[in-house]
Amino acid sequence: MSAIATNLQAVRTRIAAAASAAGRTPESITLLAVSKTKPLADVLAAAAAGQTAFGENYVQEGCEKAAATVDLHLEWHFIGPLQSNKTRLVAEHFAWVHSVDRLKIAERLSAQRPTDLPPLQVCVQVNVSGEASKSGCTPAEALALCQAVAALPQLRLRGLMAIPEPADDAAAQRAPLRQLREIYESIRAAGLPLDTLSMGMTHDLEAAIAEGATIVRVGTAIFGERNYT
Ligand SMILES: *Cc1c(COP(=O)(O)O)cnc(C)c1O
User: Fold this and answer.
1) Which of 32, 94, 217 to mutate to test the pocket of ligand 1 (most atoms within 8 A of CB)?
2) What is the pTM assigned to this prediction?
3) 53 vs 165, which has greater pLDDT?
4) Given this model, what pLDDT does residue 131 score?
5) What percentage of the chain has pLDDT greater than the value 70?
6) How far apart are alpha carbons 14 and 209 in whole angstroms?
7) What residue ranges define each of the domains in the chain, with the CATH number in brackets?
8) Of 201, 209, 225, which is best to mutate to test ligand 1, by the most ligand atoms within 8 angstroms of its C-beta?
């Protein structure tokens, strides 16, 4: 078995244990393998081990990997910051975008989504408390942005995404995850049929599953540490 196959099995075991502890089924949680900065060979190794959903943060890199693997029918998710001059490439190559944080980006993605493809599946990124990043709409803006995204023809609004700051203890990890779930529930209560909570990474996937994550985005635990130099 390749190291990546072994790592994937370990992550699936973590997900199953966390699901069981939360009284949930493992099937209610999708594992997104975050392959940013990693070579195509690593994607192929994960695909050979049965992984189908992959996440990328950088437009060019993600488009190249998606184009190189069309025959494998993998599902590509864009999860990084998105500038308006890059929306067309994302609309053409990805099945999902988790990082929509303003209406202008959503409008461009909808207008540029090729009509022979299914609608682009979209999460609105929310900047929950304690995040250092500038990405994400504010919690107060989330409902109105979701309503506007839901009205766009070539997008299908699925849910919310957040990237909380790393924290060591479980209580500190859970607070922002719970905040995202509460925003999610309030938007559902307002009548939007959301079904996706994209939260949880290598260090906090158990806390995220306890708080209701339906997609966990895991890079390091599958592919190893990233080297940015
Ligand atoms: C890099 C990244 C991940 C994966 O993080 P790990 O800690 O390596 O699991 C998940 N989500 C987003 C948005 C990322 O940028």
Assistant:
1) 217
2) 0.97
3) 53
4) 73
5) 99
6) 10
7) 3-223 (3.20.20.10)
8) 201
